[in-house]
Amino acid sequence: MIGRLNHVAIAVPDLDAAAAQYASALGAKVGAPQDEPDHGVTVIFIELPNTKIELLYPLGENSPIQGFLDKNPSGGIHHVCYEVEDIIAARDHLKASGARVLGDGEPKIGAHGKPVLFLHPKDFQGTLVELEQV
């Protein structure tokens, strides 16, 4: 059901500093910041030859990323994103197998302009999983 790894998301306490570090220290191709108000984040994508790194920074007072950073002030890995061909079929299969879909269970449009869902970390060995339809 899952396809390739789309990205690994890292919550960061300073978006500009994190982006600069990836660009200067690692020589990575760093995208422009983009606000995602529906998800309460500002993101920057780091392009790698085989996947992406998504830097996450809180957008607004109710950002879920702020809660993560409150618990992890230095930042850290927030979630992994896998591609799926049919997000509704994937959701229905996962729910039938006992996995919990976060939110209302309906896909939202993610940072790439494609439907996404998040799966409860307690159902995936403590890892928050995002599914993105390709």
Describe this structure in words.
With about 130 residues, the protein is an alpha+beta fold. The protein has one domain: Roll (2,3-Dihydroxybiphenyl 1,2-Dioxygenase, domain 1). It has helices at about 15-25, 65-70, 85-95; strands at about 1-10, 30, 35, 40-45, 50-60, 75-85, 110, 115-120, 130-134. Strands 1, 2, 3, 4, 5, 6, 7, 8 and 9 form a nine-stranded mixed sheet that branches. The longest helix has 10 residues, at about 15-25. The model has no long low-confidence stretch (mean pLDDT about 95).
Write out key terms for the chains shown:
2,3-Dihydroxybiphenyl 1,2-Dioxygenase, domain 1; 3 helices; 21% helix; single chain
List the helices and strands and how they pair.
Elements: E1 2-11, H1 15-24, E2 29-30, E3 34-36, E4 41-47, E5 52-58, H2 64-71, E6 76-84, H3 87-96, E7 108-109, E8 115-119, E9 128-133
Parallel strand pairs: 1-5, 6-9
Antiparallel strand pairs: 1-6, 2-4, 3-4, 4-5, 7-8, 8-9
Protein name: methylmalonyl-CoA epimerase
Family: Belongs to the methylmalonyl-CoA epimerase family.
Catalytic activity: (R)-methylmalonyl-CoA = (S)-methylmalonyl-CoA
CATH architecture: Roll
Which sheet architecture does the biggest sheet show?
9 strands, mixed
Strand content: 35-45%
Tally of strands: 9
* Name of the CATH class: Alpha Beta
Rounded to the nearest angstrom, the distance between the terminal CA atoms is 12 Å
Task: Specify the helix fraction band.
Answer: 10-25%
Unreliable spans: none
Q: Tell me, rounded to a whole number, the average pLDDT.
A: 97
Total of DSSP H or I helical runs spanning 4+ residues: 3
CATH topology name, in short, is 2,3-Dihydroxybiphenyl 1,2-Dioxygenase, domain 1
Number of structurally distinct domains: 1
Q: Based on CA inertia axes, which overall geometry fits? A: globular
Structural category is alpha+beta
Could you name the CATH homologous superfamily?
2,3-Dihydroxybiphenyl 1,2-Dioxygenase, domain 1
Based on CA atoms alone, the radius of gyration comes out at: 15 Å
Order of helices and strands: EHEEEEHEHEEE
